[in-house]
Amino acid sequence: MSNSKICESADKVLQNFINSLDDVETSHHRMDSQKIKCNFGQLGICCKLCANGPCRITPKAPKGVCGANADTIVARNFLRAVAAGSGCYIHVLENTARNLKSLGKTGGEIKGIHALDRLSHNRIRSS
Ligand code: SF4
Questions:
Q1: Does any ligand 1 atom lie closer than 6 A to the CB of residue 76?
Q2: Among 15, 51, 73, 123, who pairs with 9 as Cys (CB 3.0-4.6 Å)?
Q3: In this structure, are 22 and 71 located in the same domain?
Q4: pLDDT in tens, 3-25
Q5: Are residues 24 and 68 in the same domain?
Q6: Are residues 103 and 54 in the same domain?
Q7: Is the pLDDT confidence value at 105 over 90?
Q8: Overall domain count for the chain
Q9: Are the beta carbons of 51 and 27 closer than 8 angstroms?
Q10: For residues 35 and 47, is the Cβ–Cβ distance under 8 A?
């Protein structure tokens, strides 16, 4: 994987770390392969909330079948995306907290300690 492209990141330490990985596919790799976006989707003016859609807002069709305009559709899409994304990461955080608690109770072993070590050393050197 180290030869495959990844997206640019503001976090250069993380970007360099991901670039150094072999045979690992991350969201940074998939973001690059998904960089060609649908214009309606990217602007948030495509709605698929009900079976009357998908509705796409254009100057000739400024409202969806239900009457929702671009502002309504963008706001609904944004709120749904934030709720879904937050839900996903809260789940990741919950799993991490449970794993740490379990490790603390059992004195278990941290998997991937070398990757963690390498990442933390890179962060210390860059700060
Ligand atoms: S704009 Fe209205 S009619 Fe069209 S898909 Fe969305 S909710 Fe359904």
A1: no
A2: 15
A3: no
A4: 568 888 888 888 888 888 888 89
A5: no
A6: yes
A7: yes
A8: 2
A9: no
A10: no
Q: Name beta bridge partners: 46.
A: 56
- pLDDT above 90 for 58: yes
CA distances from 68 to 27, 37, 39, 99, 103 (A): 33, 23, 19, 44, 50
15 neighbors 27 (Cβ within 8 angstroms): no
Atom from ligand 1 closest to the CA of residue 53: 5
Domain of 93, in residue numbers: 39-126
The answer, yes or no, to whether the previous bond of 62 is cis (omega within 30 of 0) is no
Return the best residue to mutate from 40, 45, 46, 47 for the ligand 1 pocket (most ligand atoms within 8 A of CB). Answer: 47
pLDDT above 90 covers what percent of the chain? 39
C-beta neighbour count of 63 within 10 angstroms:
13
